[in-house]
Design goal:
Belongs to the ABC transporter superfamily. This protein is α/β, with parallel strands linked by helices. It is built from eleven helices and ten strands. A six-stranded mixed sheet has the order 6-7-8-3-9-10, with helices on both faces. It is globular. Bound molecules: adenosine-5'-triphosphate.
Length: 278
């Protein structure tokens, strides 16, 4: 069964009646990775927020449906949503610093999730938090536990947020431009971490990025969005090797200068490098 099923989702801004997303559909299988690419304002974030049940106030899913592990989320009460969020679906976003409380150590913030939502006792929560900090490949997790957010780099902060997002063992992680604010080397390390977590825990991912190279590296399937429409959708290799839509071709041309080639394959005539399984 799909862990996440998005069917014909349309999103409308109730304030002016404007429809901003005009029908998005995809299925996310356990351990699968779906990517959403497209220019700024194309509706990628609203689509994710609809799946997470956190649309901005006044915005509604005006048609279509979202089901998480077979449950249509439209019918959920606030309480049921709270139970589902974290335990089944988690998320990380751009700008990790703004999601951490500056006055608490990062360890205390993860422990709090484990105590309040996971029902762990203080000491168990501390031990589990340190395991999670190790699982996101932070060196010296015991010391990192006692650090305040401002003492960590952006890449370390994002690892802490990934640790918090997976702390309750969700099936799905939404990564919305999660590497965009980071420098290129750190970006690659975080992408490796996400690929690792998928491999080791079967976590399914929704990866939103304006960067095709990110999608080429991580995803099985990609949706290309422009102005709230999905203009092209399919297996990542098919879409990136044989784009059918002019807009996808344009995105690929724009990215060639940033080294998309190395994810797409070797020069003509040779077998493509399989970036998804290597
Ligand atoms: N809180 C909001 N209030 C008003 N309009 C919004 C709000 N959030 C999004 N929009 C509008 O909805 C459209 C889609 O936005 P969305 O954030 O989903 O795009 P995006 O593809 O994620 O872009 P970006 O890469 O810049 O985040 C845009 O036209 C945007 O202006």
């Amino acid at each position: 069964m799909s862990v996440l099923q998005v069917r014909g989702v349309r999103i409308t801004n109730g304030a002016n009646g404007e429809e901003l997303v005009h029908g998005v559909s995809f299925d996310l299988e356990p351990g699968g990775v779906v990517g959403i690419v497209g220019e700024s304002g194309s509706g990628k974030t609203l689509t994710c927020r609809a799946a997470l049940g956190i649309l901005p106030s006044g915005f509604t899913v005006s048609a279509g449906s979202v089901a998480i592990e077979g449950t249509d989320i439209a019918g959920l009460s606030a309480k049921q949503w709270t139970a589902l969020r974290g335990a089944t679906i988690g998320a990380v976003f751009q700008d990790p610093g703004s999601y951490l409380n500056p006055s608490l150590t990062v360890g205390a913030q993860i422990s709090e999730v484990l105590r309040v939502r996971g029902g762990l006792r203080r000491r168990q929560a501390r031990a589990r938090s340190q395991e999670l900090l190790a699982a996101v490949h932070l060196r010296d997790p015991h010391r990192v536990y006692d650090r305040y957010p401002h003492e960590l780099s952006g890449g370390m902060q994002q690892r802490v947020l990934i640790a918090a997002a997976i702390s309750l063992g969700p099936k799905i992680l939404v990564a919305d431009e999660a590497t965009t604010a980071l420098d290129v080397t750190v970006q690659a390390e975080i992408l490796d971490l996400l690929a690792d977590l998928r491999e080791s825990t079967g976590l399914a991912l929704v990866v939103v990025s304006h960067d095709l190279a990110v999608v080429a590296q991580l995803c099985d399937e990609v949706l290309v969005m422009r102005s709230g429409e999905v203009v092209e959708q399919g297996p990542v290799k098919q879409v990136l090797h044989r784009p059918r839509h002019d807009y996808t071709r344009l995105l690929i041309r724009e990215h060639e200068q940033y080294g998309l080639d190395r994810f797409l394959g070797t020069p003509s005539g040779k077998e493509p490098v399989d970036a998804l399984t290597n």
